[in-house]
Amino acid sequence: MANIYFSDEPQSKVRPCIVLSDEHYDSGFLLVAPITGARDPHCLLLSKSDATCELTNGSTARADVIMRISTDEVARPIGQVTAAFYDRMVGKIIGLIR
Question: What structural domains and CATH numbers belong to the chain?
Answer without folding.
Answer: 2-97 (2.30.30.110)
